[in-house]
Amino acid sequence: MFNARNSSIALVSGLCVVANAGITDTVITFDHGLEGFTSTGGFNDILPNGGNDGAYYNAITESFGVEWQTTTNESFLGDYTQYDQVTLSIDVQVDQIQFFGQDATRSLVVELRNSRFAHSFFQYGSVFFELDSNLSAENNADWSTFSVTFDPNSTELPDGWRGYGGSDDADGPVLPDGATFADVLTNVDQFVFSTLVPVERYPFTNFDIAVDNISISTVPAPSAFALLGLTGLVGTRRRR
To answer: Alpha carbon of 76 to those of 26, 37, 95, 213, 238: distances in Å?
Structure first.
């Protein structure tokens, strides 16, 4: 027999599952392990003390650059356009960035990659933001926090954002052909913080960098607020 009360409960339960699936407000403190994050090359380890409170992830390597990325932590992966606003953040401390024994500066970049835009020699399309262009032992000997807040539904590249994966990059990297900023963000399957600006060239460099508190926070879209309102209405019905 059809039961309106039970059907309403099931409907709201299903809506809540959809609203909470995938991307979730999260802070990776490294107090509980890597939680799906990895770093490139050299010595990489979690140290229990000395972070921006508690543990931190230390990368010591000689390479073109360093990446901290995840393809498995679902809190950072999926459709960003379900939200009105997203904030990404990381804490960084630099012990060494040196080229031939001389102190050097590098960039700090956050990049959101979408493999659906892979083509030709491009393994993915992406959008990226340069959080800092002067990362160094001198400037960042103490913990520094870097963050960016953006509208993932923007069709144009927001201020400071750039695209990668387009066929015409004579003047620098560009969005994949025919894609908007929002298109790339509908399927983020690789989340990256990096010292590498896409398509720029770098020499082999000595790095000793610590990171902590990699985070994502979101503001739900109006439709998500509407679902919350619907939940409240059905809850009121059940109490009658």
So the answer is: 8, 10, 27, 13, 35
